Amino acid sequence: MEINSEKKGNCLSISAKGRLDTVASREFMKWTDNNLGEDIKDVVLDCSDLTYISSSGLRVLMTIYKTITPRQGTLSLKDLTPQVGEVLNITGMASLFNIE
Amino acid sequence: MKISLKDIKGAIQGLGVLILAALLLQLVSGIQYYYTKKSIENEARKLAEIRLKNANLLVEAGMTNVEVAVQNVTNFVRDNLDSPDRMFDITRGVMDLNMSLAECGLLFVPNYYPKKGRAYHPASLRTPEGTIQTIDLNRDGFNYYTRPWYNDAIAKDGANWTDPYFSHSDNNLICTFSTPIKDNDGKVVAVLYADISLEWLRQLIEEGAGEYKNAYSVILNKLGEPVIDTRNGDIPLGFFAIEEPMVSQERGEQKITYRDTVSYAFYAPIGNHGWSMAIVCPEKEIFADFRRISTRLSILSLLGLLILGFIMFMTGRGFAKLRKEEGKRERMEKELNIAHGIQMGMVPKVFPPFPERDDIEIYAYLNAAREVGGDLYDYFISDGKLWFSIGDVSGKGVPASLVMAVTRSLFRTEAMHQSSPEVVMKAVNDSMAEMNETNMFVTMFIGCLDLDSGELNFCNAGHNPPVICTSGTASRIQLKPNLPLSLINGYTYIGESMTIPDGGTLFLYTDGLTEAENIHKNLFGEERMMEVLRKSTVPSELVKGMSKAVSAYTDGAEQNDDLTMLAIRFWGTRRKHLGIKNEISELNSVPEFIEDLCPDPKIQSEVNLALEEALVNIVDYAYDKPGSGTIDIDASVHRNVLKLVLTDSGKPFDPTATTAPDITLPPDQRPVGGLGIFLVKKLMDTLDYERKDDKNILTMTKKIC
Question: ipTM of the predicted structure?
Answer without folding.
Answer: 0.89
